[in-house]
Amino acid sequence: MPDPTRVLLWTDTPAAYLDAIAAANLTGRVAVEAVSRTETPTQAQRADTEALLAWGAPAGLLPQMPKLRWAQALTAGVEGWLALPDLPPNLTVTCARGTHRESMAENILGALFHLTKPYAAIVEDQKSSKWVRRTCTPLAGATLGILGLGAIGQQVAGIASKIGMRVIGTKRRTETLPDVAEVLPTERTDEVLAQSDYVLLLLPATPDTENFMNAQSLAKMKPTAWLLNFGRGHLIADADLIAAVKEKRIAGAVLDVFRQEPLPVEHPFWTTERIVVLPHIGGGHPQRDKVVAKLFVENLERFLDGKPLKEVVDRAAGY
Asked: 101-116 vs 119-127: helix axis angle to the nearest 10?
């Protein structure tokens, strides 16, 4: 019988992953160790680990792991991994793409309802025992433009279309998608911006998407349109967005991701009227580890059997 494959879980919440390994009857084929995020793997762990589950890794660590052949990222975005100056060229990196599509979609729809239904203002009215009749803005009939029609974007499209919204968007590889009226290539982003009442950013972090929404692209939006960013903070040129909102060239923005997190207290997003700051709540939910563990164990079994892994990161594309 071959020696068990050495697996390292570098996370503060290893229980779901250990349970999933046991449930898949892989315990006899692997030797699993767990390390909290505040700890550094021991010299022995660095020497022996063949498969790694982690949020990320500091520069200098991965080259000390000569047997490491596969790293499973705990996040969908992998810009931190790809930014490592010493990321081993032959290391296969897989991401957690699609593991939070339901929670992200619900939170995005929650943001749309926050913008169009006056519940927050009504709660404030109640504190003063005020009876104020407020008007709701319908989402039905409005156009939602999704920049980045991946797994999450398609999930959002399905829900939005069912409440009567017209959904359009961009995708690097265009194809017909259910619940999407029109799928355009990224080169035609301006057309999506011009038509949309709500623009949703779900693009990955790559050099090509740095400052994707700048003064020029914001100028393509309707003055009545809202921008929602649930992708990555670096998609937006912060100063350009603040200027566009203050000058009422767009209606406002809901932001769940930022260049620096937590958002610094001195950042003007906090105090700019009609910019809503969310503390990166989009993808998190109580069962997320169980969902990621399902993907991890499926990939672990494939890894042990020498089969292609799921959600492999394309280093050239950046995601």
From this structure: 60
Query: 52, 71 in Cβ contact below 8 A?
Result: yes
| pLDDT tens figures, 119-146 | 999 999 999 999 999 999 999 999 999 9
Residue 100 a catalytic site member? no
Reading the block at residue 112, the tokens are 């749309």
Q: Which of 6, 101, 166, 232 is catalytic?
A: 232
- Domains 5-99+286-305 and 101-277 equal at CATH topology level: yes
166 among known catalytic residues: no
Among residues 280, 285, 302, 315, which one is catalytic?
Answer: 280
Q: CA 171 → CA 148, 176, 201, 264, distances in Å? A: 6, 10, 12, 33
pLDDT tens column, 157-184:
999 999 999 999 999 999 999 999 999 9
Strand locations in 236-296, DSSP E? 252-255, 275-277
Which CATH architecture group holds 5-99+286-305? Answer: 3-Layer(aba) Sandwich (3.40)
